[in-house]
Write a structure and sequence with these properties.
CATH topology of the largest domain in chain B: TATA box binding Protein, subunit D, domain 2
CATH architecture of the largest domain in chain A: Orthogonal Bundle
Strand content of chain B: 35-45%
Strand content of chain A: 15-25%
Radius of gyration of chain B: 17 Å
Helix content of chain B: 25-40%
Low-confidence stretches of chain A: 62-121, 153-179
Family (chain A): Belongs to the TFIIA subunit 1 family.
Low-confidence stretches of chain B: none
Number of strands of chain B: 3
Structural class of chain A: alpha+beta
Keywords (chain A): Nucleus, Transcription
CATH superfamily of the largest domain in chain B: Transcription factor IIA (TFIIA), beta-barrel domain
Organism (chain A): Lachancea dasiensis
Oligomer: heterodimer
Mean pLDDT of chain B: 91
CATH architecture of the largest domain in chain B: Roll
Order of helices and strands of chain B: HHEEE
Shape of chain A: flat
Distance between the termini of chain B: 10 Å
Number of domains of chain A: 3
Number of helices of chain A: 8
Number of domains of chain B: 2
Distance between the termini of chain A: 27 Å
Structural class of chain B: alpha+beta
Strand order of the largest sheet of chain A: 1-2-3
Strand order of the largest sheet of chain B: 1-2-3
Number of strands of chain A: 3
Protein name (chain A): Transcription initiation factor IIA large subunit
Shape of chain B: globular
Number of helices of chain B: 2
Largest sheet of chain A: 3 strands, antiparallel
CATH class of the largest domain in chain B: Mainly Beta
CATH class of the largest domain in chain A: Mainly Alpha
GO molecular function (chain A): RNA polymerase II core promoter sequence-specific DNA binding; TBP-class protein binding; transcription coregulator activity
CATH topology of the largest domain in chain A: Helix Hairpins
Chain lengths: 227, 115
Amino acid sequence: MSNLEGARAYESIVENVINEVREDFESAGIDEQTLQDLRLVWQTKLSDSRVAKFMWDPEDEHGLNAELHNAHIAPNLTDTPGIAMPSMSSPSDEKATGFIPQHQQQQQQGHSLMTQTKHDDQPKEEIELTMEDPDGQIAEQLKLQAKQARKSALLETDEINSDLDDSEDDYLNSSGDEEGQDDNIVLCLYEKVLRVKNKWKCNLKDGLATINHKDYAFQKAQGETEW
Amino acid sequence: MSTSGFYELYRRSTVGATLVDALDTLISDGRIEASLAMRVLDTFDRVVAETLKDKTQSKLTFKGHLDTYRFCDDVWTFIIKNCSVKLEQTEDPQGNTVIVDKVRIVACNSKKTGE
């Protein structure tokens, strides 16, 4: 399921919020740099959440990126004939071992990784890259990190709300049962909710959805469910 | 609803939670006041509502087993299990279906937005 529109919506939200609060920053005596830092931190956190591919995303992936570089460099070093430089090649070897224990495999792997980096230019290939790491450990780690980041962010939401804003939406933040397992969540407005016996139909609109760690934006949604 | 008349519900989304997080960082670094952060969040509430209203076209459909429903304070919450979700958007007109074990839907009343 492609989520281009979700990514575009997020980009536009970031852009507009930053532009529209500029005046507030100025009248509070806060400099432009701080505003730009806010944008940067926000964008970085969004990228780290990996819910979509954004236009500000760096070409490479951080953690994986380092490994890729090592995989690229290592074959070159070891291939250089006549020069024995174990001290130089071994550090990169060690790092690359997470991927590949043997030299030959390293080269093969280096190749397949390079083709993967090419794929990486195309926005939607990004997730596949993590899937393709051989033992799946890195993908697992990244997912976990993203998850933890999201969770702590949500916790801090509660903190801010409870401290400074006796908001009426507390029931939203603490919606009780099974909190923290909301991997798939849709936030939206309802137009109509209809029930006939155990069949429920609902018309929703203006929504943001997180489904399987990907975010989507929608104009309208329609659901048919049975209780 | 915040004073500005827009729902705070989208603060729970990824784009909202990451903004809260970023603001929190600036506050704890002593670079901005909490009151300014609240103004940013108020602006966020409005911008998200406008963006979703004016700049999205995708249509989402879902089917599944309604595990839990709740209507409280004008907010519907549905927990749907074995849910198939399909998104149709302009660059992907025939859409694509994914199936998820569980999805939670939180929906505020559309009649009140922006009032």
